[in-house]
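Predict both folds.
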Amino acid sequence: MSSKAYPVLRWPDIGEIEERTEVLLDSPVRSLSPAAMAHYEDWFQRNCPNSQASARESAAVIPGGLQHSLPSSRPFPVQMARTSGAFAWDVDGNQYIDFIQAGGASVLGANHPVVREAVIDLLTSCAPSTCFPHEAEIQLAQFVQGSVPSVERFRMLGSGTEAVMAAIRAARAFTGAAHIVKAGGAYHGWSDQLVFGLGAPGSGRAAAGGIPDPVLSLTHEVPPNDVGALRARLSQCAADGGTAAVVLEPLGPQSGTMPVEEGYAGQVRDLCDEFGALLVFDEVVSAFRLGMAGVQGHLGVRPDLTIFGKCIAGSYPGAGGLGGRAEVMSVVTPGHTGTVALLGGTLSAGPLSSVAGLACLMEMRRTDAPAAASRAGDLLCARLTELITKFELPFLVYNLGSIVHLDTSGLFRLRRDDPDYAAQFKPRRAQNRDIATACAAEGVMISQTGRMFTCAAMTSDVIDDAVHRFEKVFAATAA
């Protein structure tokens, strides 16, 4: 099968996922034995002395000694020295298959030579940031406009969090309404307005330390995939000035960790039209990774605004952007005659991020990298499913193209308002961490969420190797 003919996204059976999740949540937590964990922790002690020394240095200068939360840090964080394609090497020379891929930013594979050479070429003649216009920022905006049908205007920003802030501000300025609605459990960056309902549905402001109550009084969460609950919330907000925006990951919260039905986004579009709210798609992770037109291209649903990140700067810094209807985007235009939503960012749209993003996206389109990455995701999911069956584990694995979800604990399907949430949370979080630690010791880097990103550099041989390593961890868990 040619890469061009390969489907980038096959929507999973949400009903089946829900049923298997219930089985997982009803099962005892299946963690590794203390002896197995001692074996894996000993591996780090023996093989990662330089990382251990770096961890001690880090603890003296960085709060908690850690600035990156995706990989496991047990017994200490592993410091990486080099990355290439599907692999990463730590400061002690150990090689790992990298399923973190810069949090999903690398679709071509880590440190891709085409992107790297474009950046090197730029830096021989220009600073990475200048505060002056650069031709690459125009070309990047033209590329996004030509790839994503809903984007008539595009503005580069410094991060996905900044893009979310811009979307909320633009929506409020355009509509004159103030309320914001999101799906419970979704992460839309760490700006004050959206640190609400994080991690698990029903969380409310549990993670909002340092944010005054009035700041979040206009932010609301509804259960994912629940059209009735969204209608009820929009009706309530309509009686209090209206809703400015519904912010939605079209896959479901956390890149599909809590997946929604394929038709859900279209139903939300209809409700937004009915209640006069803007529909904002958060495609920070999914844009370009799941097709050059994003998930919205697959669904045929046009949001009013789209939040970009990750791939937009080719995994280089400055990975953020906001695009959408020209009429809505006009409010972020300096000198706009109506209400202006101020956006800033000295380092936004710098030559480095623009050149890297353009080179990356052009190479992704030329090589059909999203399809190649999704082929790897499909294969990884199928092989892990076989292992789960072989060892009779209650684990769950499914994928949305090149985003693969391995759920070994059900942690992210707990609801904060369940009576036994506190009792369930701690052991299930520990199990996630232990599985990630064991996988790392076997040479596979996955995030503590169980979310994995495949890239175009992951051939069938790489997936075979990874599955062999997963098998050792699953065998130890089953034992």
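Second protein follows, with its predicted structure tokens after the sequence.
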Amino acid sequence: MNGTTGTTRNPNPNPNPNLNLSPRPLPRPRPVIVVGSGPTGLLLAGDLATAGVPVTLLERRPHKISNLSRAFVLHARTLEQLDARGLADDLEAVGQPLDRLRLFGRLTIDLDPLPSRFNHLLVLPQYEVEKVLERRAVEAGVDFRHETELTGLVQDADGVTVEVRGPGGEAESLRAAYVVGTDGMRSAVRDAIGLPFPGRSVIRSVVLADVLLAEKPDTLLTVNAAGDAFAFIAPFGDGYYRVIGWHRRRNVADSEPLDLDEVKEITRLALGRDFGMHDARWMSRFHSDERQAPAYRVGRVFLAGDAAHVHTPAGGQGMNTGLQDAANLGWKLAAVVNHHADPALLDTYQAERHPVGRSVLRSSGGIVRLAMAKRPWTLALRAALTAFLGAVAPARRKAVGQITGIGYRYPAPRGSHRLTGTRVPDTALADGGRLYEALRGGRFVLITPEASEGGQGGPGRAERLTVARWASDRRTALLVRPDGYVAWAADAPDPAAVEAALAAHVG
């Protein structure tokens, strides 16, 4: 554990926040409260409810899926996670696949060789993702509370007490075993547990506009940097396009008024033309930060998504990283709450996801800095890197693996099989199904070289475990976690070894 005590945002008269000295009784506890109903919170809450964990989702905004979103891309690893929940095909039907990336005006990266069922980027606005995730969460029985703002939080050895303000301004206390903050960059949960958010603003006065275009761009994603200007154009799918632009010499406050002429000018400088943009339905400014919380867990409180890390939009990794945080944490919380795993399992969330967040900060920041290179030595570095990636296939595969998320692996105990901690690609099973179909419902999947009756015993284990055979001739047995990573592997294991692995990981 990274700590046992959180602090309230308001001064606490109790000098020892581990002790609850209030004379009033604690409210009836619930297993998990999730704060923030963006994509990360929706996926996490839906996973918990699907696993039979009662979960309350708090959101300070009214109930409305907003189309004013910044995220526009789903990467291969995220699509795999959504496939394991039966959601990917619905999103593929409304999104637009992109099978290659063009970086720095010279480097073209073909995504077709990606070792994934989803060997492309899927371009679609964030609100389409939220629609699908919210529908799943509602069907699973998540308790939604909109227009409910967290005002304070205190935890003790047995749980967490959350103070909230409801739609009418009424105060209420809620009690949970665990709380997860998925409430964005200005996270009230992160503030309440006293965690800093170190980092800095990297790009200021980024402009956003949703516009109609008189001329359709030649490519699905249009992006370029020239001189002091950068611009990006992507389709919403409803006739409107999202334009993101930045000019190095325009450093103004986010509150500074923005008009369409400024967006047009930046676009012309970066892309050579403004595509006849007109009829903006929404415009705004924002600044892009690089920040990461030093811990994703403090006692019984966790952070995920933008509450834990924020970075530049380069590479489209923001929403994707948050969704993968949720996929990692959800099955672990469910296992602990349902008494199938030791609470020590929750420590692995920090160990596995914090390094990934740090890596995303570095890669997205590097892309932005190279895209905006201006000095001779940085231009030379960009040219050299572009040539290197274009010529050296292993380096190119590694870079693509980081951006798409399929290249990450998690730490494994010393002496583990070489596959432990690695992502498992979708694979055909002997019964005609696929691995990611077998993972649905938050189940572990044991894939064996031959039919095995062992490993399914134990009270209730069959509800959490699917046993399958390889469709091909393989001798390695794999125990795949609900998030699609290898929990345990062995070459030609005996039944006793399999049973020991299942007892350790499935419970």
